[in-house]
């Protein structure tokens, strides 16, 4: 069965972005980048991977799911379909995008992920954001957290507060880098 993997950068204080969605405090250079490019080439935007000659065909994901605020980062930076090498599903009740290999939907994310799991293919990447991650929390099979050596002090959390229901995950791998980044992988 396909796994839903929440693969995301996070600050030491648990934020995936600043108060206005900014994520420029997270390092994009350093020794951790070799691991990310080797193990998760499919999580790089299609255009960036193409410019750098990175083969994305060996990645683990065939689908990416994200909320509108995560999606819109691409178009705001000149990439209307950031992950067109993957099946892209963007959840929004108010907005619509008509781009290559992208579907915008107002459907229940749990229902959509359940349908995706039943199909053949690679794993499903939960790209962000916190609202969607909170809705899908009970569906997440694996967390891959790129802990960055920065404290944001506020912003968009990894998950929004909500109904208290602990979900246990086991640490299966953790790697630390000279850059200060620690990549931790947990499975349910």
TrEMBL record:
Pfam families for the chain: RibD_C
Position of the signal peptide: none
Bacterial bifunctional deaminase-reductase C-terminal domain span: 4-182
One of the record's GO molecular function terms: 5-amino-6-(5-phosphoribosylamino)uracil reductase activity
TM ranges: none
Protein name: Dihydrofolate reductase
GO BP: riboflavin biosynthetic process
InterPro entries, sorted: DHFR-like_dom_sf, RibDG_C, Riboflavin_Biosynth_HTPR
């Amino acid at each position: 069965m396909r796994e839903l993997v929440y693969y995301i950068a996070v600050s030491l204080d648990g934020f995936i972005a600043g108060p206005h969605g900014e994520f420029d405090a997270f390092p994009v250079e350093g020794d951790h980048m070799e691991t990310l490019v080797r193990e998760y080439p499919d999580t790089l935007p299609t255009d960036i991977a193409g410019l750098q000659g990175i083969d994305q065909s060996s990645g683990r994901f065939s689908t990416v799911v994200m909320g509108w605020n995560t999606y819109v980062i691409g178009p705001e930076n000149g990439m209307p379909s950031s992950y067109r090498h993957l099946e892209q599903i963007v959840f929004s009740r108010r907005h619509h995008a008509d781009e290559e290999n992208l579907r915008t939907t107002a459907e229940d994310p749990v229902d959509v992920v359940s349908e995706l799991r039943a199909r053949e293919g690679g794993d499903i990447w939960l790209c962000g954001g916190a609202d969607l991650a909170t809705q899908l929390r009970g569906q997440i099979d694996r967390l891959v957290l790129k802990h960055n050596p920065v404290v944001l002090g506020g912003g968009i959390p990894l998950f929004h507060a909500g109904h208290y229901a602990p979900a246990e995950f086991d640490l299966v791998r953790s790697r630390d880098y000279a850059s200060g980044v620690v990549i931790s992988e947990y499975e349910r």
